[in-house]
Write a structure and sequence with these properties.
Number of helices: 18
Largest sheet: 10 strands, mixed
Strand content: 5-15%
Number of strands: 14
Helix content: 40-55%
Shape: globular
Radius of gyration: 25 Å
């Protein structure tokens, strides 16, 4: 049976410990801070369960024989990679790319680690066995996983191991049954709508920080797991009409505190090894696969924003202005560039063992480019929309007041739609680029992959510098000082 939305919704009613606005939440699936976003996530599973979508969205689990989402698929060829991408793309289109931590994100990360199972086996055969078993467990249940892999900021002038006791999640005890962890991790994005949380350390660790070098998966209702939510934009949304994105797609973020949480060994994949804590990301295909998923989603999201920009100019009657077409052409070129990088990293992919992996160099190039592109896109949309983003009715209630409704009709006019259509479009645009929800997405897109220094570092390390420098050296070798008086013919370098 294919997992559907009702099944996912039911699975979240698990008694987890969630706190927001000073109170512990009872059934968080019905709480106004999370209710609609959780149902949007459940809608992804309803989408995959529709008969017309089953072939595109699922493949047969080699374990259970049942159809599961292609996010768990381990491609062995370019064709399989593209099949998988089309499924992830279809899911992203359901939210316009605004669900940044949809189920396929951490599933892609875990799948990438499994593709590098040989790396785990070289370090610890038991941890490798635990990883593979958990992957099968999560795959065959089509679990929604999130992760917390970044430390609370604390004193950023100190290393993780130098932070105050109890701040950074660490192993405080172990026995024959497993490890006990205590401390916090962030950002816990989408944790209200996920089943389990992957806990690890993506930031570099050094000798002496072995107690921080663990990786595990934990049910979000496990004893001692406490979720401290940020402010809910969904709860602050006036209505779906006024906040069409925030009211339904606020996946929420949270600090997750592990208050002496016991984790059995069969859910521990890295333990007491700072080298493996790093290798799990960058020696296996994990980091490539998780960020490849991000680029699929970003391509969808940027295309959504491009469409929004175009409609704004049509509604304002400026689409035929040459300068407007030039601005739209610039955005279109940049969006197409993202799509081109996405397709390029697939075509130029290589094998890690039997598995087909997107091209690392192009992936990291895309990460650098998109990190800079998102704020530029929002600025371009603001420039095209102008004051229309601000001068809107205060809420949907204004339309129900007979004393002011006629004036709304007069002042919110457009050559292509009625006053209601104009307000609806501009409300959507403001939610995407100017609201608190939109600002959170700006921060997310700029930093989810790390600071600019981090992503540019990945691009630096993955580029084929030998080839680039060899071109220069070969050219330099084609002439000498004598060429100043007797130029040599240009020789084509092989």
């Amino acid at each position: 049976m294919i997992k559907n939305g009702k099944q996912h919704l039911d699975s979240l009613r698990d008694g987890r410990e969630v706190y927001i606005d000073g109170e512990r939440v009872g059934d968080h699936t019905e709480h106004p801070a999370f209710r609609q976003a959780i149902r949007s996530a459940a809608g992804l599973y309803d989408y995959q369960a529709k008969p017309e979508n089953i072939e595109k969205m699922t493949y047969t689990s080699p374990g259970s024989g049942a159809p599961v989402n292609r996010m768990w698929q381990l491609p062995t060829s370019y064709t399989e990679l593209v099949e998988r991408r089309k499924a992830l793309e279809a899911w992203a289109e359901q939210s316009g790319g605004f669900l940044g931590r949809s189920p396929d994100h951490v599933a892609s990360c875990l799948s990438g680690m499994v593709m590098g199972l040989d790396v785990f086996e070289r370090y610890d055969a038991q941890r490798a066995k635990a990883l593979w078993s958990y992957y099968e467990y999560a795959r065959d249940r089509d679990l929604y996983l999130t992760y917390v892999i970044v430390n609370p900021q604390g004193d950023r002038g100190k290393d993780p191991g130098q932070q105050s006791e109890g701040l950074v999640a660490s192993v405080v005890d172990e026995d024959a049954e497993g490890i006990t962890i205590k401390g916090a991790k962030m950002l816990g994005t989408a944790s209200p709508m996920a089943n389990e949380v992957f806990v690890g350390a993506i930031q570099p660790l050094k000798a002496g920080e072995e107690h921080l070098s663990f990786t595990a998966c934990i049910p979000l209702n496990a004893k001692g797991v406490k979720m401290f939510s940020r402010k809910s934009y969904e709860a602050s949304a006036v209505s779906t009409f006024d906040n069409p994105l925030a009211s339904r797609l606020d996946e929420n973020d949270a600090v997750i505190y592990f208050d002496e949480v016991k984790v059995p060994w069969d859910r521990v994949f890295v333990h007491n090894n700072v080298q493996m804590a790093h290798a799990q990301w960058h020696v296996t295909p994990a980091h490539v696969y998780q960020n490849y998923q991000c680029q699929i989603r970003f391509a969808v999201k940027s295309r959504f924003l491009l469409g929004l920009a175009r409609k704004l100019t049509e509604v304002n009657g400026v689409i035929k202005f040459p300068q407007v077409q030039e601005a739209l052409g610039q955005i279109a070129a940049e969006v197409a560039m993202v799509e081109g990088l996405l397709h390029g990293m697939e075509v130029a992919g290589t094998h890690h063992g039997k598995y087909f992996v997107p091209n690392r160099k192009m992936l990291y190039s895309a990460m650098v480019v998109t990190q800079q592109l998102y704020p530029k896109l929002l600025t371009q949309i603001r420039e095209l929309a102008g004051g229309g983003l601000i001068m809107l009715p205060s809420s949907y209630r204004d339309f129900g007041n007979d004393a002011i409704a006629p004036y709304i009709a007069k002042t919110q006019c457009s050559p292509t739609t009625d006053h209601m259509g104009r307000v609806k479009l501009f409300k959507l645009a403001w939610d995407a680029v100017g609201s608190e929800f939109g600002s959170r997405h700006l921060q997310y897109e700029m930093f989810y992959g790390g600071t600019n220094m981090v992503t540019r570092g990945h691009a630096f390390r993955s580029y084929d510098w030998d080839r680039a420098v060899a071109q220069v050296d070969d050219f330099l070798g084609g002439y000498t000082l004598d060429a100043a008086t007797a130029p040599a013919p240009l020789q084509r370098v092989a």
